[in-house]
Specification:
The structure is a single chain. The protein is globular. Strands 15, 16, 17, 24, 25, 26, 27, 28 and 29 form a 9-stranded mixed beta sheet that branches. The chain has an 8-stranded mixed beta sheet with strand order 6-7-5-4-8-9-11-10. A 6-stranded mixed beta sheet has the order 19-13-12-23-31-30. The protein contains 18 helices and 31 strands. The longest helix is centred in the middle third of the chain and has 23 residues. It is α/β, with parallel strands linked by helices and 682 residues long. Helix content is 28%, strand content 24%. The chain folds into 3 domains: 229 residues, Rossmann fold, CATH 3.40.50.150; 279 residues, FAD/NAD(P)-binding domain, CATH 3.50.50.60; 134 residues, D-Amino Acid Oxidase, subunit A, domain 2 (D-Amino Acid Oxidase, Chain A, domain 2, 2-Layer Sandwich). Helix 1 crosses helix 3, helix 9 runs parallel beside helix 13 and helix 9 runs parallel beside helix 16.
């Protein structure tokens, strides 16, 4: 995906923003607020439709072509709050190829003081850079998805199976004659396939080609009085006979196979059990509860966050990569999502969240990072990653560093256990049950329920179960095929001194050091794969202290001594990427996709079966603070049947099914084998 270019704005004498790229205004000079309300709010009869959806269990989904200043969205948010309809949630997806810069957004929003309450919350979380999908969870009732890039490309990424999900379309791009790409037949066809029965469309334009495009794909058209000096505006509606399904023709990817498409069923009730009360489990519980689920959290320990999530300080950083891959895009968007979420949660409860950025000095044996240092702008937007000279990096860090460095302003550090507690405290007590001291040894599906079993006892049962129990996910029969390994890590604590207390940002090289928290630095961490031994090692403390010395120009700056240690076990997949998604029926997938053993590009039109209501969220390794928040939101959206915050290709790269497909193509497994073997990445 190409990088985005911000809108080139010229401000007219009357305060109206004008696009130099498209030679057109963003809204009518006769009144932007009144125009938006007339064309989009009233044109789609939102007040009446929302009042009729009282106590609805599904979100009202608006999709907009051309986000612009965000005025239409702000008006929808204002109306939703004004109507105060119980349980009504708004999901708003907008496509924008050239987003306004933050400076221009603030200038535009200053024109509407009556919307300041909503504008200020939006601007705190808004982002004006980085192509792709950005999810902004603005309130319990309002979710905004901003897709920066080509609208048709975005629709293909976000709606690969053409499931009908949209209730209302706002067509608010620049005039068709000036921006034809946003009004073409392919866009209209996608709109039709994504629309439910009764979905409406409104737009200020009545251009002939637009009318023909919408009518040709199936929409029923009507004209209505336009706003101001415009005589007409266009309304459209999707109407289907009762026996016609609300789906379109699937658009397959991944060599025309369908392995990434789940066959999930509607649960009998919104109750879920999450196994594991670390960062992955607590974030999953939080996101499910936000979507109306009752959650039971089960853990073998006496308290939450007793494993790797219990470290005194944790660093928010992405896995950096000198390539434009699906994985690197995931970590980038995960970083930005986590940064927004932590800013929100810090206002609710003290997480120890310090968002001042992190400094990364590439080691000599990391050629990818050295490549990034030379040309970071080739792979990341300059607002996300920049290169600093040693002097610049030292000024940022507060101590003299030894080399040029990469700077990530969206990084930072917090107290992971406090984050976990905050997730759970944000859940209404009636919607959360915590069960401690119970080690889950078996899962059994009976009468559409998952029985959660410890030894010979059923602890609890629910229609949905999520496995967030780190490397122990491999101990359960349904997920025993997953190639995960335990990774021991030891963190060293060192009391700060007169020099080290000046450290203001996390500094990372072979090891990392955090600024002092209550007089103590966290330094780490060791990495011992395939071991669960958590005994403290004096040697690993020495390695941690020595490993961070190379980041500083003089060892005399630190002179730190270990005065405490903590060892815990993380979980990694053998391809070093999280495992998040529906759990496949291993033997069924081997059978259905067996042709891939003979032809890795074989076309397979059916999908394998997934264990109904069973999901996994694990293997976040050393990057859990970045990957867990977005992974949990994705998984909760998947379980709830809502629009996903990830493009299809990104979701497929997280799926546990990827290991089965990869192993078949590499001829590592065969249909008929009784027991799953480790599916090793190649």
């Amino acid at each position: 995906m190409s990088e985005i270019q911000n809108a080139e704005i010229e401000w007219l004498d009357d305060g109206t923003p004008f696009s130099r790229q498209f030679n057109d205004i963003y809204f009518s000079s006769q009144g932007g607020l009144a125009e938006s309300a007339h064309v989009f709010i009233n044109g789609n009869n939102l007040t009446t439709r929302w009042q009729e959806r009282r106590n609805s269990t599904t979100s009202f989904f608006i999709a907009e072509l051309g986000f612009g200043t965000g005025l239409n969205f702000l008006l929808c948010w204002q109306l939703l709050e004004k109507l105060s309809i119980e349980n009504l949630q708004l999901h708003y997806l907008a496509f924008e190829k050239h987003p306004l810069s933050m400076e221009d957004l603030r200038k535009a929003h200053a024109l509407w003081p009556e919307l300041e309450k909503y504008s200020s919350q939006f601007l705190e979380m808004a982002i004006d850079h980085t192509a792709g999908l950005h999810r902004l969870c603005l309130s319990p009732e309002v979710t905004l998805d901003l897709y920066y890039g080509d609208a048709l490309e975005g629709m293909s990424e976000l709606f690969p199976d053409c499931a009908a999900t949209v209730d209302c379309w706002f067509m608010d791009g620049f005039a068709p004659a000036k921006n034809p790409d946003l009004w073409n037949e392919s866009i209209a066809r996608r709109m039709w396939h994504q629309s439910r029965h009764g979905t409406t469309v409104s737009t200020y334009s009545v251009a002939g080609q637009l009318r023909r495009n919408l009518q040709d794909v199936g929409f029923r058209l009507d004209r209505a009085p336009g706003f101001g000096s415009k005589r007409d505006m266009l309304l459209a509606r999707k109407e289907l006979p009762a026996n016609v399904p609300e789906t379109g023709t699937p658009v397959l990817t991944e060599h025309s196979t369908s392995w990434h498409r789940t066959n999930s069923r509607e649960p009998s009730r919104n109750e879920a059990v999450v196994i594991g009360a670390g960062l992955a489990g607590c974030s999953t519980a939080y996101n499910l509860a936000r979507k109306g689920w009752q959650v039971t959290l089960v853990d073998s320990a006496a308290d939450i966050a007793t494993g790797a999530s219990g470290n005194r300080q944790g660093v928010l950083q992405p896995r950096l990569s000198a390539e434009r891959s699906t994985q690197s895009r995931f970590y980038l968007h995960a970083l930005l999502y986590a940064h927004r979420q932590f800013n929100q949660l810090q206002r609710i409860r003290d997480l120890g969240w310090h968002s001042g950025g992190i400094i990364r000095i590439p080691e000599n044996d990391r050629p990818g990072l050295r490549k990034l240092l030379l040309n970071p702008e080739d792979y990341y937007n300059h607002n996300v990653l920049t290169a600093l000279t040693a002097q610049q990096a030292s000024e940022e860090a507060g101590l003299t560093l030894s080399a040029d460095a990469l700077y990530l302003p969206h990084g930072g550090w917090l107290r992971p256990a406090e984050l976990c507690r905050t997730y759970l405290e944000c859940i209404t007590p009636a919607n959360l049950q915590l069960i401690n001291h119970e080690e889950v040894t078996e899962l059994r599906r009976i009468n559409n329920q998952w029985q959660i079993i410890s030894g010979d006892r059923v602890i609890i049962e629910a229609p949905v179960a999520v496995l967030s129990n780190s490397y122990l996910v491999k101990s359960l029969s349904q997920t025993s095929f997953l190639p995960v390994v335990p990774v021991r890590g030891q963190l060293t604590q060192a009391s700060c001194n007169a020099n080290s207390c000046n450290l203001s940002k996390v500094v990372i090289t072979g090891k990392y050091i955090c600024p002092a928290d209550n007089g103590s630095h966290s330094i780490g961490a060791s990495y011992q794969s395939k071991t669960t031994d958590t005994r403290i090692s004096a040697e690993e403390d020495r390695d941690n202290l020595q490993g961070i010395q190379g980041a500083f120009a003089s060892p005399e700056q630190l002179k730190l001594t270990a005065d405490g240690s903590r060892s815990s076990v993380r979980c990694n997949a053998l391809d070093y990427f999280p495992i998040v998604g529906a759990v496949p029926d291993y033997h069924d997938f081997i059978k259905v996709f067996a042709p891939l053993q003979r032809n890795a590009d074989a076309t397979i039109d059916q999908t394998g079966n997934y264990h109904p209501g069973l999901y996994v969220n694990s293997a976040h390794g050393s990057y859990g603070l970045a990957s867990c928040p977005l992974s949990a939101e994705y998984l909760a959206s998947l379980i709830s049947g809502q629009c996903l915050p990830l493009p299809a290709a990104m979701a497929a790269s997280l799926s546990p099914t990827r290991f089965i497909i990869r192993a078949l193509k590499k001829q590592q497994v065969k249909f008929g084998e009784q027991e799953p073997r480790d599916l090793l990445p190649q």
